[in-house]
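In this supplementary section we document a worked example of the pipeline. Step one takes a protein sequence of length 288 as its only input; no multiple sequence alignment statistics are reported here. Step two produces a three-dimensional model, which step three serialises into structure tokens for compact storage. The input and output of this example are shown verbatim.
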Amino acid sequence: MLQINDITKLYGLNQGIQNVSFQLNKGEVCAIIGHNGSGKSTLFKSLLGLIQLDSGKILFDEKPIQTLMMGYLPENRSVIQDLKTTDLIELVAKLKRLNNEELVLMRDYWMKVLDCESLKSKQLKQCSKGNQQKIQLICALIHSPKVVILDEPFSGLDIEITRLFQKVITKLKKQGKIVLLSSHRFEEIEHLCDYICVIKESRVIMQGTLMDIKEKVNKQTVTLSNDASVFYKDEKGVVDIIRDGNLTHYIFENEKLCARASKAMITERGLKSIKISSLTLDDLFEQS
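The serialised model returned by step three reads:
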């Protein structure tokens, strides 16, 4: 179990993190959500031991967490362009104290999983950005860490590699790893997450399982296509409206008012699309 116990690290007035607490069990994935400057990076750096806390404790199975327990994929790609892919992996593996047998075993395993065995003889500067990201992910996982931090792992990736990374996260979950990830592409992480932690201005303002949070918020969304005029903006119970391209998301304050309004929408709109759902992760973030 990973325990974050009332940790604080401040750089200035409300900059950093304050009194953050939550815990995750083995095999759980947690989404860390917040705007730029909210404190996500400070939380990750604290977990990785890159900065010293002002107060609080970070424990794994009741003991202080060790750096070698962690695997980290940074938001910004950071590879040595002139190295071969396998040389970079070997460098990181040696820093993580793997012997040669362990290195080869784990390197070949993850290169097969990530479908990049053909990159073994290539320099990193010859690899696409997506393939460089694959190599960085292998570097993060090479030592079989107990806790994996993925900071914006899907940034700049095409749909094929994004789905591959999603499968890797699912695999890590099945292996009993604890995964913390941040992303602005909520539709790509919602189905992966067991736990949500929303940070705003250095403080956790919302946390829990997605289902628990949705039940507490008790709001419903009706999504309509071809509604450029936002026809139902004055409907009773509408507390927010989110425009997303050709889609209009009406946020209702409770399920009862949503059900009443949606019946009329179905009747009036005929065959035009309509979707009724609890709040998505994207909606919850907009509401926070």
